[in-house]
Write a structure and sequence with these properties.
The chain is of the alpha+beta class and 255 residues long. It has four helices and ten strands; from the N terminus they run αββαββββαββαββ.
């Protein structure tokens, strides 16, 4: 092969290699820009959702006379689907309004004010009564990565954290403050018995109590009786799509 042919072939190889490198670089830049945009969109949604729920606290919550009070009239003006407010011993853990939608999909990606946002809204299972008088009322919320919504339920995997904050409270529009004592913290399948909300008789309910205590990560030394009313708080886990973290509390007082 002549030196001239070798030279031209070498130039063609370099030219092709340069084109391929340029294409790869362009693709990489596009992927980076799209990823950065999506990431920015996610964090913007987080920030917007956090601001909205902070504003709702400012609008509806007061602690006059050292008592936690909820202005449900103000909340209803914003969203008539509101059925309760939930908070924990330490309000920064969880402190949010609770709604009940037309189904269990409506509030997965819709905020209390009706905006499309992945933070969603904490909501009661559509098949439960909204007054929290069922034997087991199921309440759903997202585990957001910015520590909002039901994210901090994850901390109840630690028994010492549970010992520090064993209670949560549900406030209802009739003025009731319902105190719940947590008796079980478990990681379960999304088909778990924990999601049973109707019971044929006391024996069926006893079976539910036994199953939910048996699924607990540790012994809380709290055992509901057959006359108990339960609230099951449910959120997803970071490990498996078909697993859920459930925190179950039994009603202990109503003020």
């Amino acid at each position: 092969m002549s030196e001239r042919k070798k030279y031209h072939r070498g130039r063609r190889k370099k030219k092709k290699g340069g084109i391929v490198s340029t294409v790869i670089l362009i693709v990489a830049v596009i992927v980076f820009v799209v990823s950065a945009f999506q990431l920015g969109k996610i964090y913007y949604g987080y920030s917007k959702g956090k601001t909205e729920y902070h504003d709702l606290e400012e609008t509806a919550i007061s602690t006059k006379d050292d008592r936690f009070r909820v202005d449900f009239d103000a909340l209803r003006e914003i969203n008539p689907d509101v059925v309760a407010w939930i908070r924990f011993d330490e309000p920064s853990i969880i402190n949010y309004p609770v709604v009940q939608g037309k189904d269990n999909e409506e509030y997965l990606d819709k905020t209390f004010k009706g905006y499309e946002n992945t933070v969603g809204t904490i909501f009661v299972n559509v098949d439960n009564h909204p007054d929290f008088n069922d034997k087991n009322t199921i309440v759903y919320g997202h585990r957001m990565n910015n520590k909002t919504m039901f994210n901090r339920l994850e901390e109840y995997k630690d028994q010492e954290f549970y010992k520090k904050y064993p209670f949560f409270y549900i406030y209802t529009p009739d003025g009731a403050e319902i105190k719940y004592q947590i008796y079980s913290v478990g990681v379960v399948k999304d088909t778990s018995e924990s999601y049973t909300y109707q019971f044929a008789d006391d024996a069926t309910f006893e079976s539910f109590i036994a199953a939910t205590k048996g699924a607990s990560l540790y012994d809380t030394e709290v055992s509901p009786g057959t006359d108990a009313q339960i609230v099951t708080l449910s959120t997803c886990t970071k490990d498996n799509n078909d697993e859920r973290l459930v925190v179950l509390g039994m009603k202990v007082t109503v003020n």
